Amino acid sequence: MSLAPRAVLVHRTSEYEELLALHGTHGQAGFFLSSRGRSIGDVAERHRRARRILSEVTASVPLTWRQARVERADLDRFLFGPEDVVVVVGADGLVANTAKYLTGQPVIGIDTDPGRNPGVLVRHRSRDAGRLLGAATSTGGSFDELTMVEAVADNTERLRALNEIYLGRPGHQSARYRLHAGADDDASETQASSGVLVGTGTGSTGWLRSLWQERASRLALPGPADPRLVWFVREAWPSPTTGTTLVEGVLERAEQLRLVVESDRLVVFGDGIESDALELTWGQSVRLGVADARLRLLL
User: Fold this and answer.
1) What are the helix (H) ranges across 92-227?
2) Which H or E run contains 49?
3) Domain of 126: which CATH number?
4) How far is CA 108 from the centre of its chain?
5) Which terminus has fewer CB within 10 Å in the chain: N or C?
6) What is the Cα gyration radius of the chain?
7) Hey, is 237 helix, strand or coil?
């Protein structure tokens, strides 16, 4: 007997809740914001709207389904199942934060702040949640299959991301490593830089694009479904022992970028979640390339 579908509602603590946790009361939080030229009213209203939308989505889950909720900070401890339908209620970045923990489950993005969020990944409104849940489990459901990037260390630890993976020193200080690019690692260079970024077409609207624009790169950035990645070295430093020749490139599906650590400690994390990172020490290596898994985002 198969399990009934489970709707997993992913949300995050609001700015208002964070302010209350820090300052204790609504009044104290309001005083703090007013000293910085902001109004507590706007922050509280966005909180109320997000909670109302979360409640509306919860009420839309069919009675025969199971339900679970998970806050963003607990994603790395939550066990997603194959029968889950993941409903991300929040901003676009929350979809990216969730994607790295999934293995093909359908995802529905519900926008809690239309007009304020770009809506690239949270494409739907709470009023449509019931219909969308049905579509996610039907054979006729239409999905975008978004490319993800994966890092695999030589000790078999791995990490996936929807936008980009960063490799470098904690705090973004200068990192030393040997970079191997091209077929069979035929191009290599020892570098000192503030890190390496490898990302997808989805990530090409954010951090990757800023690097691409800054250096007037001629690389063609991929689209979200393109099975290729782009990579950039941040602020490579020339010296008698470190080079700046291999600072950007494209990775097709079968290609990988390999880095061998020449620092006491480097970290690898995805989509800005530094708390969930791989830690590498001197002599370890990591390969970065297109992940086998993709994000299945409901159209």
Assistant:
1) 92-99, 129-136, 207-214
2) helix 40-60
3) 3.40.50
4) 15
5) N
6) 21
7) coil
Q: Can you say whether the dihedral through the CA atoms of 142, 143, 144, 147 is positive or negative?
A: negative
Characterize the bridge pairing of strands 196-199 and 266-270: unpaired
Specify the amino acid at residue 294.
R
Q: What percent of the chain has pLDDT over 70?
A: 98
Does residue 34 sit in helix, strand or coil? helix
Given a contact cutoff of 8 angstroms between Cβ atoms, the answer to whether 115 and 135 are in contact is no
Tell me 117's DSSP state.
B
- What does the block give as tokens for 94? 């929350």
Give the end-to-end CA distance of the chain in Å, rounded to a whole number: 30
The pLDDT tens digits of the residues spanning 258-277 come to 999 999 999 999 988 888 89
Reported residue count of the chain is 299
Of the residues 123, 141, 159, the one at which a domain ends: 141
| pLDDT (tens digit per residue) in 215-249 | 899 999 998 889 999 999 999 999 999 999 999 99
At position 154, the amino acid (one-letter code) is D
CA distance 52 to 113: 11
Name the nearest CA neighbour of 199 among 237, 235, 233, 175.
233
Are 122 and 204 contained in the same domain?
Answer: no
Domain co-membership, 131 together with 159: no
Mean pLDDT of the chain: 92
As given in the structure block, the two tokens for residue 64 are: 């025969």
Tokens, residue 242: 């470190």
Name the token pair of 254: 């079968």
Is there a domain that residue 270 lies in? yes
